Known about the structure:
By secondary structure, this protein is α/β, with parallel strands linked by helices. It has two domains: about 5-55 and about 315-415, Aspartate Aminotransferase, domain 1; about 60-310, 3-Layer(aba) Sandwich (Aspartate Aminotransferase, domain 2). The chain contains 14 helices and 17 strands. A seven-stranded mixed beta sheet has the order 4-12-11-10-7-5-6. Strands 1-2-3-15 form a four-stranded mixed beta sheet. It has a four-stranded antiparallel beta sheet with strand order 13-14-17-16, covered by helices on one side. A hairpin with a 5-residue loop joins strand 8 and strand 9 (about 215). The longest helix is centred in the last third of the chain and has 24 residues, at about 315-340. It is globular. The model has no long low-confidence stretch (mean pLDDT about 95).
Amino acid sequence: MNTDVFAAHESNVRRYGRSFPTVFKRALGATIWGEDGNPYIDFLVGSGALNYGHNNPNIVEPAIEYLLGENILLSLDMYTVAKREFIEVFVDSILKPRGLSYKIQFPGPTGTNANEAALALARKYTGRSSIMAFTNAFHGMSLGSLAVSGSASTKELGGVARHDVTRVPYDGYPTPAFDSASYIDHVLSDAGSGIDKPAAIILETIQAEGGMNTASAAWLIEIQRICHRHGVVLIVDDIQAGAGRTGEFFSFEFAKINPDIVCLSKSLSGSGSPFSIVLIRPDLDIWNPGEHSGTFRGNNLAFVTARAMCKMWSDGQFTTGVERTTARLQRHVDSLVAKFPWCIEQKRGRGLMAGLKCRSQAVVSRVRHVAFENGLLIESSGPNRDVIKVLPPITITDDELDHGIAILDHALKEQANGY
Length: 419
Ligand SMILES: *Cc1c(COP(=O)(O)O)cnc(C)c1O
């Protein structure tokens, strides 16, 4: 396998290429092949950006047709047919059936672009500057998003202090017994707390990069109530947990909350094409025309593939399949937890977004290595990188899922032999 060109010319910053030292060439569904022809089951899926698998024919075929038709590819924020059709399907297949009503902002194409827009809008709307953000949060790599992120290494990257950010404990932090929602309510109500009333509270319902920490429905409902009570904008960063990852389209549906702003990206295009949107409670949409901008707000190929993805959610066979796969993955994960208590401390995550909190980073890094050797791509997360992220495509076949889990099982068993 020739990887010389990467070592010679690509920046030292490269990471996944080191974790998975092969050169990938082809992919379909949940399987990705190296140029040597070796197949791997993909439980990494572009860190949640390929929830619908690689080259999903329902999604890629309309894109091929679109590309061949001399259609618009880039349009800033002009009106195009592809954008109109995306909006229509997004409203009809996603928002309306869930009783949701939002204006849609198209920022730049990455997740962090969406978060920056959301934070800017909340600050403009409230006239306040501070943002409340959680321990172990991850919101992206631009300065505003870095500021609200929790991890130490992420902070150092910004090279700046976290201005205008108040860090508060996430659900279950530092211990399951601590009632973080009451604490937040208290500091916002107490004039002596020394904590400024924020423009917004920004949260992930599952902190994927932060270690698959999972908020309960009760906690989310309570945070929403606190936001209403104190006139604070609730922003849900659904960039990784949304677009189907938990088995429902939005990760907060199970809690029946109605956030003021929702940010989507990663799997939103359905195809891996860069795309993000900010969903805004209509009365909060106080942007002036052109006040917030970005060159790549009009990635029409992403409009086409995102439309195809959203249409799938109106298909009962598709949603039933996702439910079945969710239950199957959860059964597998429960059995791994029961089988390898000396490796795995706790199950984390929800739906098709599963996490295995392990006893050490060393275990996780060996599991990842053995899994790769045996044909499975899997990654770790958390401040100590001791959580295995299990993110199969939500469209994975039973055979591929069982096969991927069998490889993971084997890799965990190897660790048992090492002790
Ligand atoms: C990946 C991610 C982001 C950042 O998205 P980019 O496209 O990398 O800028 C923000 N929030 C969450 C929860 C993410 O998982």
